[in-house]
Write a sequence for this structure.
């Protein structure tokens, strides 16, 4: 989806803070698809992704006053809300019913790897999929599943320093892939 | 510190993606304020990320939007469009406002300058008139001075005889003087003191030649000396008050002054 520059970003933020409906509609039309793709990459279920997307847009609506344009772009802020909401959902009660005391175990490789072919080829994961396996796993665990580097180091039995270094290298490679 | 190495460390990407811890985030925010190249790198990655996400979008089904907008229905402000229209920065709108102000200012200045121009023009015309009035007055004065100079020359000429004519009985306050050029026989009159002639009346100079009065001319409105008729011979000069234009013979009871010639 191509962004139609109907508003520049400061204008859009100002209008959203004034509870302007057409600005909000514009925001939804332009960004719902991009955010839903990231949400889907994390929750892995279409219907659940729709619920989270709705929740995210309500949060954007209610928390637009907390957005600080000095810290970054509006999309970055919305993307982080989406990621956090998605990870929270995955870890929520309904999920706990299925996976009591969800812990990072040896099955991370199956969780992050080849068993999720359908989500690998969609959205941002499609880009991550271009990374080497050892990098892809780290990005998947930390970005899409929200594990801390400490948790990852323990689970994978790799020193924390190595996790840190590899993850940073993975992110630089990601940057170079998406660089225009 | 090595800024380039910092930019290439992956910490920027980690921060933008929300994966940096609070210490790393605080450090990056601090450094980005000090180093524009770090800010630039952050902006570039954010923009690339946004473009990638938009390019990999998965548009939601229509019912999601319907549900969302239904749940927010009461929260939209109906009148924001108007309020926002006034507040939104619009370059062309500012330009239009600025142009209008300039136009009005220019129009006001035009009126002001035109008024000034009209006032100056009027004042200039008045000055021109005053100048020409002064010039002609000056010319009159010069002419009078020249006339008076000529009169003085004439009066002081030894060939010119001065005939003083005092007031006759009953008109003792009156006085007039005749200057008679004995060579050219030209007669000039100076009315030193004569009452106002009155309407329809005019003073007339007479020369008494061989006991008979000869008309020497009526006295007009001349300044200083009045040139009268040429009188070759006279024993006496006198002035009477006659009707305007003069009379063929003098009205003797209306005689004011008289003086013996020679």
């Amino acid at each position: 989806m191509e962004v139609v520059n109907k508003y520049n970003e400061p204008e859009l933020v100002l209008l959203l803070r004034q509870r302007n409906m057409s600005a909000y509609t514009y925001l939804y039309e332009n960004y719902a698809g991009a955010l839903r793709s990231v949400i889907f990459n994390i929750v892995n279920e279409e219907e659940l992704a729709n619920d989270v997307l709705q929740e995210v847009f309500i949060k954007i609506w209610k928390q637009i006053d907390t957005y600080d344009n000095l810290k970054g772009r509006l999309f970055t802020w919305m993307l982080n809300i989406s990621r956090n909401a998605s990870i929270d959902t995955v870890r929520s009660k309904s999920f706990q019913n299925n996976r009591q005391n969800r812990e990072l175990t040896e099955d991370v490789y199956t969780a992050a790897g080849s068993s999720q072919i359908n989500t690998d080829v969609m959205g941002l994961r499609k880009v991550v999929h271009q990374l080497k396996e050892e990098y892809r796993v780290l990005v998947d665990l930390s970005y899409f599943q929200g594990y801390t580097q400490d948790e990852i180091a323990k689970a994978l039995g790799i020193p924390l320093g190595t996790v840190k270094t590899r993850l940073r290298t993975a992110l630089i490679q990601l940057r170079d892939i998406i660089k225009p | 510190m090595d800024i380039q190495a910092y930019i290439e460390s992956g910490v920027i990407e980690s921060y933008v993606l929300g994966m940096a811890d609070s210490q790393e985030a605080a450090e990056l925010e601090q450094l980005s304020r000090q180093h524009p190249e770090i800010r630039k790198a952050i902006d570039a990655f954010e923009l690339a990320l946004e473009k990638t996400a938009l390019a990999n979008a998965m548009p939601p089904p229509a019912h999601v939007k319907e549900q969302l907008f239904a749940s927010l229905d009461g929260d939209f402000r109906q009148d924001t469009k108007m309020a926002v229209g006034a507040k939104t920065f619009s370059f062309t709108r500012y330009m239009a406002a600025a142009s209008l102000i300039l136009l009005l200012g220019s129009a006001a200045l035009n009126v002001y300058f035109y008024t000034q121009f009209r006032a100056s023009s009027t004042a200039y015309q008045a000055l021109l008139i005053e100048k020409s009035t002064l010039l002609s007055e000056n010319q009159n004065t010069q002419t009078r001075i020249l006339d008076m100079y000529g009169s003085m020359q004439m009066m002081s000429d030894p060939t010119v005889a001065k005939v003083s004519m005092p007031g006759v009985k009953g008109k003792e306050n009156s006085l007039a003087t005749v200057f008679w050029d004995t060579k050219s026989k030209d007669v000039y009159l100076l009315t030193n003191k004569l009452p106002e002639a009155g309407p329809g009346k005019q003073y007339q100079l007479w020369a008494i030649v061989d006991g008979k009065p000869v008309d020497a001319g009526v006295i007009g409105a001349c300044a200083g000396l009045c040139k009268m008729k040429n009188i070759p011979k006279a024993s006496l000069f006198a002035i009477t008050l006659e009707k305007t234009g003069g009379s063929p013979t003098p009205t003797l009871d209306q005689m004011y002054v008289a003086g013996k010639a020679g």
